Amino acid sequence: MNGLSAEEQRERLAELDPEAVAELEADDEGDDHDLPDLPNADAYDEIRMRAAPNPNGPWHIGHARMPAVIGTYAERYDGSFIVRFDDTDPETKRPDIDAYDAILDDVEYLGFEPADVIRASDRVETYYEYARDLIELEGAYTCTCPGEEFSELKNAGEACPHRDKNPETVLAEFEAMVDGEHEAGDIVLRVRTDIDHKNPALRDFVAFRMVDTPHPREEAADYRCWPMLDFQSGIDDQLTGVTHIIRGIDLQDSAKKQRFVYDYFGWAYPEVIHWGHVQVDAYDVALSTSTLKEKIAAGEYDGWDDPRVPTLKSLRRRGVRGEAIVNAMVELGTSTSDVDLPMSNIYAHNRELVDDETDRAFAVREGVRFDIAGGPDTAHPPLHPEHPDRGERTIPVGDAVFLEPEDVPEPGERVWLKGYGPFGREGDTLVYTDESIAVVRERGVPVVHWAPVEESVSLRLRTMDGDVACFAEPGVREYDPDALLQFERVGFARVDAHDDRETTCYFTHS
RNA sequence: GCUCUGGUGGUGUAGUCCGGCCAAUCAUAUCACCCUCUCACGGUGAUGACCAGGGUUCGAAUCCCUGCCGGAGCACCA
Predict the structure, then answer these.
(1) Is the domain of A402 the same as that of A500?
(2) At A183, phi and psi to the nearest 5?
(3) pLDDT digits over A467-505, tens only?
Protein backbone atom coordinates (compact mmCIF):
# COMPACT_ATOMS: atom_id res chain seq x y z
CA MET A 1 0.00 0.00 0.00
CA ASN A 2 2.86 2.36 0.73
CA GLY A 3 4.15 1.99 -2.80
CA LEU A 4 0.98 3.56 -4.17
CA SER A 5 0.33 7.23 -4.72
CA ALA A 6 -2.17 9.00 -2.54
CA GLU A 7 -4.62 8.89 -5.41
CA GLU A 8 -4.18 5.17 -5.87
CA GLN A 9 -4.46 4.55 -2.18
CA ARG A 10 -7.73 6.35 -2.10
CA GLU A 11 -9.09 4.40 -5.05
CA ARG A 12 -8.06 1.20 -3.43
CA LEU A 13 -9.69 2.24 -0.20
CA ALA A 14 -12.86 3.05 -2.10
CA GLU A 15 -13.12 -0.56 -3.14
CA LEU A 16 -12.55 -1.85 0.35
CA ASP A 17 -14.41 0.70 2.43
CA PRO A 18 -16.40 3.44 0.66
CA GLU A 19 -17.47 5.03 3.92
CA ALA A 20 -13.90 5.64 5.00
CA VAL A 21 -13.32 7.61 1.80
CA ALA A 22 -16.37 9.72 2.38
CA GLU A 23 -15.00 10.53 5.79
CA LEU A 24 -11.62 11.43 4.39
CA GLU A 25 -13.20 13.75 1.87
CA ALA A 26 -15.34 15.35 4.52
CA ASP A 27 -12.15 16.07 6.42
CA ASP A 28 -10.54 17.63 3.37
CA GLU A 29 -13.56 19.78 2.94
CA GLY A 30 -13.29 20.86 6.55
CA ASP A 31 -9.87 22.35 5.98
CA ASP A 32 -11.17 24.78 3.41
CA HIS A 33 -13.23 26.92 5.70
CA ASP A 34 -13.30 28.19 9.23
CA LEU A 35 -16.99 28.37 9.86
CA PRO A 36 -18.71 25.39 11.43
CA ASP A 37 -21.27 23.47 9.40
CA LEU A 38 -24.72 24.96 9.36
CA PRO A 39 -27.05 22.92 11.55
CA ASN A 40 -29.24 20.45 9.72
CA ALA A 41 -28.17 21.87 6.37
CA ASP A 42 -28.95 18.64 4.53
CA ALA A 43 -32.61 18.95 5.34
CA TYR A 44 -33.05 21.93 3.03
CA ASP A 45 -33.02 22.11 -0.76
CA GLU A 46 -31.52 25.54 -0.74
CA ILE A 47 -29.90 27.37 2.12
CA ARG A 48 -31.45 30.77 2.55
CA MET A 49 -30.36 33.35 5.08
CA ARG A 50 -30.99 36.98 5.81
CA ALA A 51 -29.42 40.09 7.19
CA ALA A 52 -32.06 42.15 8.92
CA PRO A 53 -30.60 45.53 9.77
CA ASN A 54 -32.41 48.43 11.31
CA PRO A 55 -31.56 51.28 8.93
CA ASN A 56 -30.57 53.86 11.49
CA GLY A 57 -27.17 54.72 10.08
CA PRO A 58 -24.19 53.47 8.12
CA TRP A 59 -22.65 50.34 9.47
CA HIS A 60 -19.87 50.12 12.01
CA ILE A 61 -17.28 47.38 11.87
CA GLY A 62 -19.32 45.01 14.00
CA HIS A 63 -22.15 45.05 11.50
CA ALA A 64 -19.87 43.50 8.89
CA ARG A 65 -20.08 40.21 10.70
CA MET A 66 -23.58 39.34 9.48
CA PRO A 67 -23.05 39.79 5.74
CA ALA A 68 -19.55 38.33 6.02
CA VAL A 69 -20.78 35.16 7.63
CA ILE A 70 -24.06 34.61 5.83
CA GLY A 71 -22.47 35.62 2.54
CA THR A 72 -19.73 33.07 3.13
CA TYR A 73 -22.27 30.41 4.04
CA ALA A 74 -24.33 31.24 0.97
CA GLU A 75 -21.28 30.70 -1.22
CA ARG A 76 -20.28 27.53 0.56
CA TYR A 77 -23.72 25.92 0.34
CA ASP A 78 -24.57 27.43 -3.00
CA GLY A 79 -27.47 29.17 -1.31
CA SER A 80 -28.46 32.80 -1.05
CA PHE A 81 -29.21 35.58 1.37
CA ILE A 82 -31.43 38.60 1.36
CA VAL A 83 -31.19 41.96 3.05
CA ARG A 84 -34.37 42.85 4.88
CA PHE A 85 -34.70 46.22 6.51
CA ASP A 86 -36.57 45.80 9.76
CA ASP A 87 -37.79 49.36 9.86
CA THR A 88 -41.00 48.99 11.80
CA ASP A 89 -40.39 51.60 14.46
CA PRO A 90 -40.88 55.11 13.11
CA GLU A 91 -40.25 56.65 16.50
CA THR A 92 -37.84 55.14 19.02
CA LYS A 93 -35.57 53.58 16.43
CA ARG A 94 -36.52 55.94 13.69
CA PRO A 95 -35.04 54.90 10.35
CA ASP A 96 -32.57 57.21 8.70
CA ILE A 97 -33.68 57.65 5.13
CA ASP A 98 -30.09 57.66 3.83
CA ALA A 99 -29.11 54.57 5.74
CA TYR A 100 -30.87 52.13 3.41
CA ASP A 101 -28.53 52.87 0.55
CA ALA A 102 -25.55 53.37 2.84
CA ILE A 103 -26.00 49.87 4.20
CA LEU A 104 -26.40 48.35 0.76
CA ASP A 105 -23.16 50.10 -0.23
CA ASP A 106 -21.47 48.58 2.77
CA VAL A 107 -22.66 45.10 1.80
CA GLU A 108 -21.30 45.62 -1.69
CA TYR A 109 -17.99 46.85 -0.30
CA LEU A 110 -17.69 43.62 1.63
CA GLY A 111 -18.05 41.82 -1.66
CA PHE A 112 -21.50 40.29 -1.43
CA GLU A 113 -24.64 40.64 -3.43
CA PRO A 114 -27.97 39.96 -1.79
CA ALA A 115 -30.43 37.89 -3.80
CA ASP A 116 -33.11 40.35 -2.83
CA VAL A 117 -33.62 43.50 -0.81
CA ILE A 118 -36.89 44.11 0.99
CA ARG A 119 -38.21 46.63 3.47
CA ALA A 120 -40.62 45.69 6.22
CA SER A 121 -42.27 49.09 5.86
CA ASP A 122 -43.39 48.01 2.37
CA ARG A 123 -45.05 44.93 3.75
CA VAL A 124 -47.31 46.23 6.47
CA GLU A 125 -50.47 45.03 4.70
CA THR A 126 -49.04 41.54 4.66
CA TYR A 127 -48.47 41.63 8.41
CA TYR A 128 -52.05 42.79 8.87
CA GLU A 129 -53.25 39.80 6.85
CA TYR A 130 -51.40 37.36 9.02
CA ALA A 131 -52.55 39.15 12.14
CA ARG A 132 -56.16 38.66 11.04
CA ASP A 133 -55.50 35.00 10.41
CA LEU A 134 -53.88 34.66 13.78
CA ILE A 135 -56.87 36.30 15.44
CA GLU A 136 -59.18 33.84 13.75
CA LEU A 137 -57.03 31.02 15.07
CA GLU A 138 -57.56 32.56 18.51
CA GLY A 139 -53.86 33.22 18.70
CA ALA A 140 -54.05 36.91 19.44
CA TYR A 141 -56.15 39.40 21.34
CA THR A 142 -56.45 43.15 21.60
CA CYS A 143 -55.49 44.50 24.98
CA THR A 144 -56.01 47.94 26.51
CA CYS A 145 -54.16 47.30 29.74
CA PRO A 146 -51.70 50.04 30.64
CA GLY A 147 -48.22 48.60 30.19
CA GLU A 148 -47.37 48.58 33.84
CA GLU A 149 -50.56 46.87 34.85
CA PHE A 150 -50.13 44.16 32.31
CA SER A 151 -46.57 43.68 33.37
CA GLU A 152 -47.64 43.03 36.95
CA LEU A 153 -50.27 40.52 35.93
CA LYS A 154 -47.85 38.85 33.59
CA ASN A 155 -45.16 38.54 36.24
CA ALA A 156 -47.73 36.94 38.49
CA GLY A 157 -48.67 34.55 35.69
CA GLU A 158 -52.20 35.90 35.51
CA ALA A 159 -54.28 36.63 32.43
CA CYS A 160 -55.67 40.09 31.90
CA PRO A 161 -59.45 40.54 31.38
CA HIS A 162 -58.99 41.03 27.61
CA ARG A 163 -57.49 37.62 27.02
CA ASP A 164 -60.78 35.80 26.58
CA LYS A 165 -62.50 38.04 24.08
CA ASN A 166 -63.99 36.23 21.14
CA PRO A 167 -62.24 36.46 17.78
CA GLU A 168 -64.99 38.62 16.24
CA THR A 169 -64.53 41.32 18.86
CA VAL A 170 -60.76 41.11 18.61
CA LEU A 171 -60.89 41.36 14.86
CA ALA A 172 -63.12 44.42 14.98
CA GLU A 173 -60.83 46.08 17.49
CA PHE A 174 -57.78 45.21 15.46
CA GLU A 175 -59.36 46.76 12.35
CA ALA A 176 -59.85 49.91 14.36
CA MET A 177 -56.14 49.84 15.15
CA VAL A 178 -55.31 49.37 11.49
CA ASP A 179 -57.60 52.25 10.60
CA GLY A 180 -55.70 54.48 12.97
CA GLU A 181 -58.59 55.03 15.34
CA HIS A 182 -56.35 54.78 18.38
CA GLU A 183 -53.35 56.61 19.68
CA ALA A 184 -50.04 55.34 20.92
CA GLY A 185 -50.36 53.54 24.24
CA ASP A 186 -54.10 52.97 24.06
CA ILE A 187 -54.23 49.46 22.70
CA VAL A 188 -52.05 46.63 21.45
CA LEU A 189 -52.51 43.26 19.83
CA ARG A 190 -50.94 40.48 21.87
CA VAL A 191 -50.04 36.98 20.86
CA ARG A 192 -51.66 34.46 23.14
CA THR A 193 -48.75 32.28 24.23
CA ASP A 194 -48.79 30.76 27.68
CA ILE A 195 -49.59 33.23 30.42
CA ASP A 196 -47.87 31.21 33.11
CA HIS A 197 -44.92 30.01 31.05
CA LYS A 198 -42.00 29.53 33.40
CA ASN A 199 -40.02 32.12 31.46
CA PRO A 200 -41.78 35.45 32.03
CA ALA A 201 -40.18 36.84 28.89
CA LEU A 202 -42.37 34.64 26.71
CA ARG A 203 -45.77 35.41 28.16
CA ASP A 204 -48.28 37.02 25.78
CA PHE A 205 -46.00 39.39 23.94
CA VAL A 206 -47.06 42.41 21.91
CA ALA A 207 -47.42 41.89 18.17
CA PHE A 208 -48.80 45.30 17.10
CA ARG A 209 -48.90 48.71 18.71
CA MET A 210 -49.92 52.21 17.73
CA VAL A 211 -47.30 54.76 16.76
CA ASP A 212 -48.32 58.40 16.31
CA THR A 213 -45.18 59.49 14.48
CA PRO A 214 -45.32 58.97 10.71
CA HIS A 215 -42.71 56.71 9.16
CA PRO A 216 -39.94 58.67 7.42
CA ARG A 217 -40.48 56.74 4.19
CA GLU A 218 -43.21 58.39 2.21
CA GLU A 219 -44.57 55.03 1.07
CA ALA A 220 -45.21 54.04 4.68
CA ALA A 221 -46.05 57.38 6.24
CA ASP A 222 -49.78 56.68 6.59
CA TYR A 223 -49.53 53.61 8.79
CA ARG A 224 -50.16 54.05 12.49
CA CYS A 225 -50.49 50.43 13.51
CA TRP A 226 -47.04 48.86 13.39
CA PRO A 227 -45.91 45.29 14.03
CA MET A 228 -43.24 44.54 16.60
CA LEU A 229 -40.02 42.91 15.55
CA ASP A 230 -40.89 39.46 16.83
CA PHE A 231 -44.07 39.32 14.79
CA GLN A 232 -42.81 40.97 11.62
CA SER A 233 -39.56 39.10 11.56
CA GLY A 234 -41.21 35.77 12.19
CA ILE A 235 -43.71 36.24 9.37
CA ASP A 236 -41.04 37.44 6.96
CA ASP A 237 -38.64 34.61 7.68
CA GLN A 238 -41.38 32.16 6.77
CA LEU A 239 -42.55 34.08 3.72
CA THR A 240 -39.07 34.57 2.29
CA GLY A 241 -38.03 30.96 2.79
CA VAL A 242 -35.31 31.59 5.34
CA THR A 243 -33.83 28.29 6.45
CA HIS A 244 -31.17 29.54 8.84
CA ILE A 245 -31.31 32.56 11.08
CA ILE A 246 -28.25 34.03 12.72
CA ARG A 247 -28.81 36.70 15.31
CA GLY A 248 -27.41 38.19 18.49
CA ILE A 249 -27.80 36.72 21.95
CA ASP A 250 -30.01 39.68 22.79
CA LEU A 251 -32.63 37.97 20.65
CA GLN A 252 -32.30 34.61 22.32
CA ASP A 253 -35.94 34.64 23.33
CA SER A 254 -37.19 35.70 19.93
CA ALA A 255 -37.21 32.24 18.48
CA LYS A 256 -39.12 30.99 21.48
CA LYS A 257 -41.71 33.72 21.13
CA GLN A 258 -42.03 33.29 17.40
CA ARG A 259 -42.50 29.58 17.73
CA PHE A 260 -45.89 30.25 19.28
CA VAL A 261 -46.92 32.07 16.12
CA TYR A 262 -45.40 29.37 13.94
CA ASP A 263 -47.31 26.74 15.87
CA TYR A 264 -50.62 28.52 15.30
CA PHE A 265 -49.92 28.57 11.58
CA GLY A 266 -48.46 25.08 11.46
CA TRP A 267 -45.09 26.28 10.17
CA ALA A 268 -41.69 24.77 10.89
CA TYR A 269 -39.32 27.17 12.55
CA PRO A 270 -35.95 27.76 10.82
CA GLU A 271 -32.63 26.69 12.31
CA VAL A 272 -31.27 29.39 14.53
CA ILE A 273 -27.81 30.37 15.71
CA HIS A 274 -27.15 33.01 18.34
CA TRP A 275 -23.85 34.76 18.60
CA GLY A 276 -22.33 37.18 21.07
CA HIS A 277 -21.33 40.77 20.68
CA VAL A 278 -18.18 41.88 18.90
CA GLN A 279 -15.86 44.40 20.43
CA VAL A 280 -13.08 46.05 18.46
CA ASP A 281 -9.93 47.51 19.95
CA ALA A 282 -7.91 50.52 18.74
CA TYR A 283 -10.76 53.00 18.83
CA ASP A 284 -11.75 55.59 21.40
CA VAL A 285 -15.41 55.53 20.41
CA ALA A 286 -17.85 52.74 21.08
CA LEU A 287 -19.23 50.57 18.34
CA SER A 288 -22.59 52.24 18.51
CA THR A 289 -24.45 53.84 15.65
CA SER A 290 -26.30 56.27 17.86
CA THR A 291 -23.16 57.42 19.66
CA LEU A 292 -21.36 57.89 16.37
CA LYS A 293 -24.29 59.80 15.00
CA GLU A 294 -24.22 62.19 17.96
CA LYS A 295 -20.50 62.80 17.82
CA ILE A 296 -20.51 63.36 14.10
CA ALA A 297 -23.42 65.77 14.42
CA ALA A 298 -21.55 67.57 17.20
CA GLY A 299 -18.58 68.03 14.89
CA GLU A 300 -16.22 65.83 16.88
CA TYR A 301 -15.61 63.85 13.73
CA ASP A 302 -15.68 64.90 10.11
CA GLY A 303 -18.20 62.31 9.07
CA TRP A 304 -18.94 58.62 8.78
CA ASP A 305 -15.65 58.07 6.98
CA ASP A 306 -13.43 60.00 9.37
CA PRO A 307 -10.37 57.79 9.95
CA ARG A 308 -10.89 57.94 13.71
CA VAL A 309 -14.31 56.39 13.49
CA PRO A 310 -14.92 52.60 13.52
CA THR A 311 -17.21 52.45 10.51
CA LEU A 312 -16.96 50.46 7.32
CA LYS A 313 -16.98 53.71 5.37
CA SER A 314 -13.88 54.76 7.29
CA LEU A 315 -12.04 51.51 6.67
CA ARG A 316 -12.96 51.72 3.05
CA ARG A 317 -11.58 55.21 2.74
CA ARG A 318 -8.43 54.08 4.46
CA GLY A 319 -7.92 51.47 1.79
CA VAL A 320 -8.84 48.34 3.72
CA ARG A 321 -10.34 45.76 1.40
CA GLY A 322 -13.76 44.46 2.26
CA GLU A 323 -12.39 40.97 1.81
CA ALA A 324 -9.94 41.51 4.66
CA ILE A 325 -12.80 42.40 6.97
CA VAL A 326 -14.75 39.38 5.82
CA ASN A 327 -11.81 37.07 6.46
CA ALA A 328 -11.37 38.43 9.95
CA MET A 329 -15.09 38.11 10.69
CA VAL A 330 -15.26 34.56 9.42
CA GLU A 331 -12.41 33.66 11.75
CA LEU A 332 -14.48 34.79 14.69
CA GLY A 333 -16.86 31.95 14.07
CA THR A 334 -20.36 31.97 15.53
CA SER A 335 -19.88 31.28 19.22
CA THR A 336 -22.41 32.53 21.74
CA SER A 337 -19.84 34.26 23.88
CA ASP A 338 -18.78 37.83 23.31
CA VAL A 339 -15.64 38.22 21.24
CA ASP A 340 -12.89 40.78 20.89
CA LEU A 341 -11.67 41.46 17.41
CA PRO A 342 -8.25 43.12 17.29
CA MET A 343 -7.88 45.51 14.39
CA SER A 344 -4.45 43.99 13.87
CA ASN A 345 -6.28 40.94 12.67
CA ILE A 346 -8.06 42.84 9.93
CA TYR A 347 -4.77 44.53 9.06
CA ALA A 348 -2.96 41.23 8.82
CA HIS A 349 -5.55 39.97 6.34
CA ASN A 350 -5.39 43.18 4.38
CA ARG A 351 -1.62 43.12 4.23
CA GLU A 352 -1.78 39.64 2.86
CA LEU A 353 -4.13 40.80 0.12
CA VAL A 354 -2.37 44.01 -0.90
CA ASP A 355 1.34 43.73 -0.17
CA ASP A 356 2.31 42.00 -3.36
CA GLU A 357 0.56 44.39 -5.69
CA THR A 358 1.11 47.71 -3.98
CA ASP A 359 3.68 50.14 -5.37
CA ARG A 360 6.25 51.53 -2.97
CA ALA A 361 6.95 55.24 -2.48
CA PHE A 362 8.66 57.57 -0.06
CA ALA A 363 6.91 59.92 2.32
CA VAL A 364 8.75 61.68 5.11
CA ARG A 365 6.85 62.70 8.22
CA GLU A 366 7.77 66.01 9.79
CA GLY A 367 10.82 66.29 7.56
CA VAL A 368 14.18 67.68 8.63
CA ARG A 369 16.03 69.38 5.81
CA PHE A 370 19.59 68.58 4.74
CA ASP A 371 21.60 69.93 1.83
CA ILE A 372 23.00 67.38 -0.51
CA ALA A 373 26.54 67.51 -1.85
CA GLY A 374 27.55 65.23 -4.66
CA GLY A 375 25.69 62.17 -5.86
CA PRO A 376 23.70 61.52 -9.04
CA ASP A 377 20.90 63.86 -10.12
CA THR A 378 18.16 61.27 -9.85
CA ALA A 379 17.36 58.21 -7.79
CA HIS A 380 15.71 55.07 -9.15
CA PRO A 381 14.23 52.83 -6.50
CA PRO A 382 12.05 49.96 -7.74
CA LEU A 383 8.27 50.17 -7.72
CA HIS A 384 8.24 46.90 -5.83
CA PRO A 385 11.33 45.25 -4.34
CA GLU A 386 10.17 41.75 -5.21
CA HIS A 387 9.09 42.63 -8.73
CA PRO A 388 11.91 44.50 -10.47
CA ASP A 389 10.14 43.83 -13.77
CA ARG A 390 7.46 46.32 -12.82
CA GLY A 391 9.98 49.10 -13.31
CA GLU A 392 11.42 51.81 -11.19
CA ARG A 393 10.57 55.27 -9.97
CA THR A 394 12.50 58.37 -10.93
CA ILE A 395 13.13 60.88 -8.19
CA PRO A 396 14.89 64.14 -9.06
CA VAL A 397 17.03 64.81 -6.03
CA GLY A 398 17.84 68.51 -6.35
CA ASP A 399 20.19 69.97 -3.77
CA ALA A 400 18.39 69.12 -0.54
CA VAL A 401 16.33 66.31 0.99
CA PHE A 402 14.04 65.71 3.93
CA LEU A 403 14.68 63.00 6.49
CA GLU A 404 12.47 61.85 9.34
CA PRO A 405 13.74 63.22 12.68
CA GLU A 406 14.41 59.70 13.92
CA ASP A 407 16.55 58.90 10.92
CA VAL A 408 18.85 61.91 11.16
CA PRO A 409 22.46 60.71 11.55
CA GLU A 410 24.79 62.22 14.10
CA PRO A 411 27.44 64.54 12.67
CA GLY A 412 30.16 62.42 11.14
CA GLU A 413 27.91 59.38 10.82
CA ARG A 414 26.74 57.86 7.59
CA VAL A 415 23.33 57.00 6.27
CA TRP A 416 22.14 55.22 3.12
CA LEU A 417 19.40 57.07 1.32
CA LYS A 418 17.25 54.26 0.12
CA GLY A 419 17.27 53.75 -3.60
CA TYR A 420 19.79 56.51 -3.95
CA GLY A 421 23.14 56.10 -2.20
CA PRO A 422 25.52 56.57 0.74
CA PHE A 423 26.06 59.88 2.50
CA GLY A 424 28.01 61.17 5.46
CA ARG A 425 26.74 64.02 7.57
CA GLU A 426 28.90 67.13 7.76
CA GLY A 427 27.05 69.87 9.64
CA ASP A 428 23.72 70.37 7.90
CA THR A 429 24.95 68.81 4.73
CA LEU A 430 24.87 65.22 3.56
CA VAL A 431 27.99 64.52 1.51
CA TYR A 432 27.99 61.74 -1.03
CA THR A 433 30.58 59.10 -0.14
CA ASP A 434 30.41 56.91 -3.23
CA GLU A 435 30.68 53.68 -1.28
CA SER A 436 29.14 50.39 -2.30
CA ILE A 437 26.16 48.74 -0.67
CA ALA A 438 28.67 46.75 1.32
CA VAL A 439 28.71 49.53 3.92
CA VAL A 440 25.12 48.67 4.67
CA ARG A 441 25.69 44.95 4.81
CA GLU A 442 29.01 44.96 6.59
CA ARG A 443 29.11 48.16 8.59
CA GLY A 444 25.46 48.40 9.51
CA VAL A 445 24.90 51.82 7.96
CA PRO A 446 21.17 52.52 8.36
CA VAL A 447 19.01 52.61 5.26
CA VAL A 448 16.43 55.36 5.44
CA HIS A 449 13.72 56.78 3.24
CA TRP A 450 13.78 60.40 2.16
CA ALA A 451 12.10 62.96 -0.07
CA PRO A 452 13.57 65.67 -2.29
CA VAL A 453 12.95 69.23 -1.08
CA GLU A 454 12.61 70.99 -4.40
CA GLU A 455 10.21 68.69 -6.19
CA SER A 456 8.51 67.19 -3.19
CA VAL A 457 4.78 66.81 -2.86
CA SER A 458 3.10 68.19 0.22
CA LEU A 459 1.15 65.32 1.60
CA ARG A 460 -1.38 65.20 4.35
CA LEU A 461 -1.57 61.78 5.86
CA ARG A 462 -4.81 61.26 7.73
CA THR A 463 -4.44 58.71 10.49
CA MET A 464 -6.46 57.42 13.42
CA ASP A 465 -4.35 59.67 15.64
CA GLY A 466 -4.82 62.79 13.60
CA ASP A 467 -3.27 64.31 10.51
CA VAL A 468 0.45 64.21 9.82
CA ALA A 469 2.24 66.63 7.49
CA CYS A 470 4.55 64.79 5.11
CA PHE A 471 6.74 65.40 2.10
CA ALA A 472 6.54 62.74 -0.55
CA GLU A 473 8.36 61.95 -3.73
CA PRO A 474 6.82 63.63 -6.81
CA GLY A 475 5.58 60.41 -8.38
CA VAL A 476 2.83 60.22 -5.78
CA ARG A 477 0.85 62.77 -7.73
CA GLU A 478 0.59 60.37 -10.65
CA TYR A 479 -1.60 57.95 -8.73
CA ASP A 480 -5.32 58.37 -9.13
CA PRO A 481 -7.49 58.67 -6.09
CA ASP A 482 -8.26 55.24 -4.61
CA ALA A 483 -4.82 53.85 -5.44
CA LEU A 484 -3.01 52.13 -2.62
CA LEU A 485 0.65 52.84 -1.90
CA GLN A 486 3.09 51.57 0.61
CA PHE A 487 5.20 54.37 1.97
CA GLU A 488 8.35 52.48 2.78
CA ARG A 489 9.05 52.19 6.46
CA VAL A 490 5.83 54.08 7.21
CA GLY A 491 2.98 51.92 6.06
CA PHE A 492 0.19 51.51 3.56
CA ALA A 493 -1.97 54.44 2.57
CA ARG A 494 -4.78 55.10 0.14
CA VAL A 495 -4.53 58.09 -2.17
CA ASP A 496 -7.63 60.13 -1.52
CA ALA A 497 -7.34 63.37 -3.46
CA HIS A 498 -4.96 65.79 -5.11
CA ASP A 499 -5.41 69.53 -5.18
CA ASP A 500 -3.17 72.44 -6.08
CA ARG A 501 -1.61 72.62 -2.66
CA GLU A 502 -1.30 69.09 -1.48
CA THR A 503 -2.14 65.44 -1.81
CA THR A 504 -4.26 63.75 0.81
CA CYS A 505 -3.74 60.13 1.75
CA TYR A 506 -5.46 58.00 4.34
CA PHE A 507 -3.23 55.79 6.43
CA THR A 508 -4.25 52.15 6.19
CA HIS A 509 -1.94 50.32 8.57
CA SER A 510 1.74 49.57 8.90
C1' G B 1 -36.69 38.00 41.70
C1' C B 2 -37.79 34.70 37.33
C1' U B 3 -35.70 32.67 32.74
C1' C B 4 -32.01 31.74 29.13
C1' U B 5 -26.79 31.21 27.85
C1' G B 6 -21.54 30.97 28.12
C1' G B 7 -16.19 30.24 30.42
C1' U B 8 -9.49 26.60 25.84
C1' G B 9 -2.74 31.02 25.50
C1' G B 10 -3.06 38.64 24.92
C1' U B 11 -6.94 37.82 20.92
C1' G B 12 -9.85 34.45 17.85
C1' U B 13 -10.41 29.38 16.87
C1' A B 14 -10.03 23.54 16.63
C1' G B 15 -11.04 19.56 19.94
C1' U B 16 -16.29 18.88 23.93
C1' C B 17 -22.05 15.66 21.20
C1' C B 18 -19.57 9.68 20.65
C1' G B 19 -13.64 10.17 27.35
C1' G B 20 -7.74 7.70 25.38
C1' C B 21 -4.43 9.44 18.82
C1' C B 22 -4.57 16.43 23.36
C1' A B 23 2.18 17.14 27.89
C1' A B 24 -4.07 20.41 23.37
C1' U B 25 -4.77 22.67 16.54
C1' C B 26 -4.28 26.74 13.43
C1' A B 27 -4.11 31.97 12.91
C1' U B 28 -3.02 36.52 14.91
C1' A B 29 -0.05 39.07 18.66
C1' U B 30 4.67 39.85 21.13
C1' C B 31 10.00 38.87 21.22
C1' A B 32 14.53 36.97 18.96
C1' C B 33 17.29 35.42 14.80
C1' C B 34 17.71 34.84 9.27
C1' C B 35 16.63 37.22 4.52
C1' U B 36 16.55 42.23 2.71
C1' C B 37 18.84 49.08 -0.07
C1' U B 38 11.51 48.90 4.22
C1' C B 39 10.46 48.40 10.64
C1' A B 40 6.60 45.41 4.48
C1' C B 41 6.73 40.35 2.47
C1' G B 42 9.07 35.61 3.35
C1' G B 43 11.72 31.93 6.70
C1' U B 44 13.17 29.83 11.66
C1' G B 45 12.53 29.72 16.77
C1' A B 46 10.53 31.31 21.44
C1' U B 47 6.43 33.05 24.62
C1' G B 48 1.69 31.62 26.03
C1' A B 49 -4.46 28.29 27.55
C1' C B 50 -8.34 23.73 29.06
C1' C B 51 -12.42 29.18 35.33
C1' A B 52 -11.95 26.50 40.43
C1' G B 53 -12.79 22.29 43.51
C1' G B 54 -14.74 17.64 44.05
C1' G B 55 -16.66 13.00 41.75
C1' U B 56 -17.04 8.85 37.98
C1' U B 57 -13.07 6.14 35.30
C1' C B 58 -7.37 2.29 34.15
C1' G B 59 -7.75 7.22 31.71
C1' A B 60 -11.38 13.74 31.67
C1' A B 61 -10.49 19.94 28.03
C1' U B 62 -14.30 16.26 26.94
C1' C B 63 -19.15 12.98 31.50
C1' C B 64 -21.56 14.35 36.67
C1' C B 65 -21.96 17.77 41.00
C1' U B 66 -20.90 22.28 43.51
C1' G B 67 -18.90 26.94 43.40
C1' C B 68 -16.87 31.34 40.97
C1' C B 69 -17.06 34.77 37.00
C1' G B 70 -19.38 36.65 32.58
C1' G B 71 -23.28 37.80 28.77
C1' A B 72 -28.58 38.20 27.64
C1' G B 73 -34.09 38.54 28.15
C1' C B 74 -38.48 39.58 31.36
C1' A B 75 -40.29 46.99 26.47
C1' C B 76 -46.46 49.44 23.25
C1' C B 77 -36.99 49.19 20.79
C1' A B 78 -34.56 46.65 17.01
Answers:
(1) yes
(2) -110, 165
(3) 999 999 999 999 999 999 999 999 999 999 999 999 999
